Amino acid sequence: MLLLFHYKTLKICCSGMLNVHASLLPRWRGAAPVIYAMANGDQETGITIMKIKPNKFDIGEIVRQVRVKILPDDRLPDLLNRLAQAGAFALVSTLREMPSCLNCAKPQSNEGVTYAPKIDQKMAVVLWDSLSARSVINLDRALTGVYPLMTTFCDTQIKLYNISQSQQLPLINFVRPGLIRYCKQSKSLEIQCSDGNWIMVTHVGVPGRRMMSAADFNNGFLSKVSENFRICR
Asked: What's the whole-model pTM score?
């Protein structure tokens, strides 16, 4: 839960209040900094111990920062776990050195400010026309355990599970973002992205049915549609 503190509340605490924020402020101010960092393809994020300011979020002076690498195979739970450990250590270290840390606090820069507002299910809808294969993979990593990625096929919204990047060469001269096909060799669905590269999906969720394999989806749905209309939107 996010709470804004009134000026009078902060005055009660003689040394002010501190907050542990899971980004390197001023980058990714807001409610979902870790998700946005991963979805954006950032290679690092971190922890910021900052002073709380009245009536606004994430603008306080920076007391301490710790950098945390985002590994290529990280998914949201992995990174959250490492950030939680880094945040706990940083907070304890700050409290042990409270006077000197507060005296060394610095205002946030006005440059490099980005925002990470509260997410909803709309973020999980894949925009094939604008997202590269790498961006789709990053979005899936960022939303792991929150929402599965979703797309629409033949007017039905489906959920995509177990996503990875295909080793198929991109079709530079023939790019149809959202084009979907079944690959017998990998037993997966392949969907083309805006850069011509493909992602692989091994399981699909269809409303009113149990999760099905890519092969079952191909047999029950994809193969029954003309190739010209095999497009995810």
From this structure: 0.91
